[in-house]
């Protein structure tokens, strides 16, 4: 049986909503500013809004293992939401939500996936806190990298299980 993870991360960045949204929605550039994003390749093109686009991601956090998956974009609402379906080492959904209030862009990333790598499922009952910590560290690297790239102040980063 696959281990299931339901995590939500919140970034608060003192930057314009459009700048944050544009950086997130152009994922081919993530390896430039996001330390954990080892490699991003476009696999397929969708419509003009990006729905149907598919990207192959290779991630590596502080704990030395890679997670590789393809994310196909399933929904886009510019400056509001980007959602995709993952398949590979993990299977499930990832959803970015964006809002802006009082000069701060608030980004919520929801990650609901089943782990499909056998060794990760084998150790998941004991290593769940470690996997959650590693996910948070990767997300923290992304928040710091994005804030640095935008020359913006990172106000907060939080990750929790849903």
UniProtKB/TrEMBL annotation:
Highest taxon of source: Bacteria
InterPro entries: START-like_dom_sf
SUPFAM superfamilies: Bet v1-like
CDD domains: SRPBCC_6
Protein's name in the database: Polyketide cyclase
Species annotation: Nitrosomonas nitrosa
């Amino acid at each position: 049986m696959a281990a299931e993870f339901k995590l939500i991360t919140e970034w608060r960045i003192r930057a314009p909503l459009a700048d944050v949204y544009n950086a997130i929605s152009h994922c081919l550039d993530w390896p430039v500013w996001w330390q954990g994003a080892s490699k991003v390749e476009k696999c397929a093109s969708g419509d003009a809004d990006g729905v149907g686009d598919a990207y192959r991601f290779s991630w590596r956090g502080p704990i030395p293992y890679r997670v590789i998956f393809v994310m196909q974009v399933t929904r886009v609402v510019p400056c509001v939401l980007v959602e995709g379906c993952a398949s590979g080492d993990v299977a499930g959904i990832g959803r970015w939500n964006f809002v802006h209030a009082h000069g701060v862009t608030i980004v919520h990333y929801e990650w609901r996936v089943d782990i499909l790598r056998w060794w990760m499922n084998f150790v998941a009952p004991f290593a769940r806190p470690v996997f959650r910590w590693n996910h948070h560290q990767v997300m923290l690297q992304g928040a710091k990298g994005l804030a640095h790239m935008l020359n913006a102040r990172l106000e907060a980063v939080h990750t929790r299980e849903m």
